[in-house]
Amino acid sequence: MGFLFYVLTRQKKVALPCGVCRGKGFYICKLCNGNATLEWSPLFDPVAMNPCLCPTCDGNRVQRCLNCLGNGYS
Ligand SMILES: [Zn+2]
Ligand SMILES: [Zn+2]
To answer: Which InterPro entries does its entry note (predicted)?
Structure first.
């Protein structure tokens, strides 16, 4: 009886890949859309628009998946 119990409890846990990042753990930054910079002006003046580094991805163009926290599994 002890042996059967041992076999049953050793079954592998099924980990499904994260559906948001498709198992990668990260995705294209949603704030800058992968551009690494934002067109932003403190004066809201379209003529004075200056590109600035995206604060979400710090210029990496990708951000860590918030659904799986970068693990790739949900
Ligand atoms: Zn970004
Ligand atoms: Zn994910």
So the answer is: HSP_DnaJ_Cys-rich_dom_sf (IPR036410)
